[in-house]
Amino acid sequence: MPLINPSSLSSNRLNIAGLIINIIGIIFCGVGVYSFAYWVIYKKKAGKVTLYLLGINCVTILFLISQLGYLYIESIPIRIIRNWLSISASLVMGLMELEIMCVFIILTNANFTMSSNFTTYVRVGIIVAHLVADFTFLTDQIWFNSDILPNDYRTKWEQIGPGMILSITGISAGIQSSFIIYKVRKFFITRETIAKSQQQSKDATAQVQEMKSLYLRAIMLLVLEIAACSTYIISLITTAPTREMLLSNQAALRQISYGFTGVHVYLETLLLYAVANQVKNSAKANRVQSSMDSRTQNPPSDKGLVDKSTIVSTDL
């Protein structure tokens, strides 16, 4: 018996809402897959960041599709695939949170001390944390003939585990979004102070527009994170007259939470892509400025030789 009976869609609005939002999450991730695949295939920009973001959207869309099968079809292979994909989706999202935070810290020159191996240590920590959190999946859930744990416990963890792990990831993402909002607001205050004392350059104005875009995306992400986590928490405390209806309502609420997560992943990959581009543009501008300063201090000789330090690579 599946968790949600397809025949109940005509009478249970919550199930309909869960299905619609799940499909919306799939559509958003599908747009993400198309967008980044277009950059890789047609624009020939197969950089590490683009490939990474393409992979994140692919994993998430596969998880959301498998979640539909898990809820509406009683099939052990689908359950196994869904469990593995839930682990993969939560892991890549956790790693993406780290990448966004590190890149944004570089972009804003935040007062945050990082050793040369900081990112490596945190990345390893995230992987270990997911392995521990998903221990039941890795040791017992994947092989349904195993009797290491009671069947009732396995069933409960199979339904609740992915949501708990994704909620923890969502909370960390919420903290990250709040940090970005705080830093961008601080940036605006600084820019307003500078603007009052002197006229802004075109580059400074463009940077303000880019930071406004980051600010709006961070707010949207924070709203989605709150919605996804709140919906999941409601699924834990909801009640119903019968056990069958309770399981159906809980599954529908978690489906809504996962749908919000799909939209969140798409927007967050766009955020990481935008932040990474800003870092590249900022680095390029700094190299150009350094080259100009070098030419000013060391003018070319009368023989017309070109100073190699003035050559700036455009292969970013």
From TrEMBL:
Residues 286-300 have a biased composition (Polar residues). Signal peptide: none annotated. Keywords: Membrane, Transmembrane, Transmembrane helix. The chain crosses the membrane at residues 16-39, 51-73, 85-108, 120-144, 164-182, 214-237, 257-276. Residues 286-316 are annotated as: Disordered. It comes from the Eukaryota. This is G-protein coupled receptors family 1 profile domain-containing protein. It comes from Batrachochytrium dendrobatidis (strain JAM81 / FGSC 10211). The lineage of its organism: Eukaryota, Fungi, Fungi incertae sedis, Chytridiomycota, Chytridiomycota incertae sedis.
